[in-house]
Design a protein that fits this description.
This protein is mainly alpha-helical. The chain is built from 14 helices and 2 strands. The chain has one domain.
């Protein structure tokens, strides 16, 4: 019986992944034409604020942005379509529906809210409204939005779901009480900020997010949270379709509507699966990117020296002479290696 359930759910996750891929693949040309027609184009920071970045990426100015809407609209769209059909029709449609109050309400809500805020940021950037570099939300406002979303999530987890434990691989669960709230907030804000910093090269964030969602989907499936695994599969399918057009040379950029929603959702799923301490393995590049920014700012403010030629760190390697596609592919390889290591730790800790 258990073997039949696992087989059925494996097929379900694969089918949903494939459906999401083809839906997103079909939608992409329509969205791309909309972006070009309405001149939703990326603005590049001025040379006085970021001279190295400007020199390396000035040629990309004018590339359509906000392509990340393809990812989250596919996930939310399929969730709504299959959810509604499952209420009026039985059988196959109920099999495809992955809306579940305990497993997918929060990641779906976080995905959508963060996407809308990111879309606002993209709009302000295109219109050159606000920001310190020619448009968009300032970093402090982004952090405020991240924190608000994280506070809502922390309240839901702590007071509604009554989650107060954190899992330490090989040592088990530890009761941390009210400390769960600040830890939750930190993880969500950090994952959102890190994803935003990583989105700087063609295919970079899309690829490393793909590896992160793959790892979290495997974890969710192993824990028997099949609707959450289905949610992960749909996201993977949408990401694959997005990458079809976003790999170098990108036809469009993800934009903050994609990076914010992906980053926050990765953090939420890590908390839902209680694998927060494995998140540095599942999202190693996101960690490295945000750490490079923090180190650079700290060094410049306190020691008046730069540690990196440019940050986030992918720009440092570009400045060293690495071709953009080479940086992206090597970061993908690093992601794959660390995801594999993280999954090995997860399975060893669970079954030994």
């Amino acid at each position: 019986m258990a073997e039949n359930l696992i087989f059925d759910q494996t097929i379900r996750v694969i089918v949903l992944t494939v459906i999401a891929f083809f839906v997103a693949l079909l939608v992409t040309p329509l969205w791309f034409r909309f972006l070009k027609k309405n001149q939703v184009r990326k603005q590049i920071r001025g040379s006085n604020q970021a001279p190295i970045f400007n020199r390396l990426h000035k040629s990309k100015e004018g590339t359509p942005t906000a392509g990340g809407i393809i990812i989250w609209s596919t996930v939310i769209g399929l969730a709504l379509v299959f959810g509604i059909l499952s209420m009026v029709l039985d059988g196959f449609w109920k099999y495809l529906s992955f809306i579940n109050r305990a497993e997918t309400y929060l990641p779906l809500a976080a995905l959508f809210i963060a996407a809308v805020i990111g879309l606002l940021d993209d709009y302000l950037g295109v219109m050159k409204i606000g920001g310190s570099n020619g448009g968009g939300l300032k970093v402090r406002f982004k952090l405020i939005f991240y924190t608000i979303i994280a506070l809502v999530g922390a309240w839901w987890f702590y007071f509604k779901l009554e989650w107060t434990v954190i899992n330490v691989p090989f040592l088990g669960n530890f009761e941390i009480g009210v400390w769960y709230i600040p830890i939750f907030i930190f993880i969500i804000v950090a994952s959102a900020f890190s994803a935003n910093e990583t989105d700087g090269l063609d295919g970079l964030l899309g690829g490393v997010s793909l590896f992160a969602f793959f790892a979290l989907t495997v974890v969710a499936f192993t824990l028997g949270r099949y609707d959450l695994a289905a949610f992960g599969g749909v996201t993977i399918g949408a990401l694959l379709a997005f990458l079809w057009f976003n790999i170098y040379p990108a036809k469009f950029f993800m934009g903050d509507t994609g990076s914010m929603s992906l980053g926050i959702t990765i953090g939420v799923i890590a908390m839902l699966t209680n694998t927060v301490l494995l998140l540095p393995f599942f999202a190693i590049i996101l960690v490295a990117e945000s750490l490079s920014v923090i180190i650079q700012l700290t060094s410049r403010n306190f020691f008046k020296k730069k540690v990196f030629l440019s940050t986030p760190v992918h720009h440092h390697f570009e400045a060293l002479g690495w071709p953009e596609s080479q940086v992206t592919m090597r970061f993908w390889i690093a992601s794959a290696v660390f995801v594999a290591l993280g999954l090995v730790i997860f399975f060893l800790a669970r079954f030994l």
